[in-house]
Amino acid sequence: LYSRAVHCGYKRSLRNQQMHTSLVKIEGVNCRDDTDFYLGKRVAYIYRAGNEKKSRTRRGNGKVRVIWGKVTRPHGNSGVVRAKFSSNLPPKSIGKRLRVMLYP
């Protein structure tokens, strides 16, 4: 159970960008008031890696990996939120799909 979202980029000022905080646009969220529901929710960036990782279980997913994060606060008035991830999202994820989990 999740909402679709897009990684828009990183938190930044005029000349510097802070890659430890990502900007996420959640589908169907268009104003700052709508973001309150999503604060504290988990975010997942799912991608395919080049080589398989040895899994501890028998039926591991092989090349599919996940970077987990959490929605921390709103960003601006247009429904964009800030999220912090366990490791910074790579630049190739900009414009790619994220999942905002609705359950926690």
Overview of this structure, please?
It is a single chain. This protein has 104 residues and is an all-beta fold. It is built from no helices and 6 strands. It has a 6-stranded antiparallel barrel with strand order 1-2-5-4-3-6. Strand 4 (64-75) and strand 5 (80-85) form a beta hairpin. It is globular and about 45 Å long. The mean pLDDT is 93.
Task: Furnish the topology, listing elements before pairings.
Blueprint: E1 2-12, E2 17-26, E3 42-48, E4 64-75, E5 80-85, E6 97-101
Antiparallel strand pairs: 1-2, 1-6, 2-5, 3-4, 3-6, 4-5
Short description:
The protein has 104 residues and is mostly beta strands. The chain has strands at residues 2-12, 17-26, 42-48, 64-75, 80-85, 97-101. A six-stranded antiparallel barrel has the order 1-2-5-4-3-6.
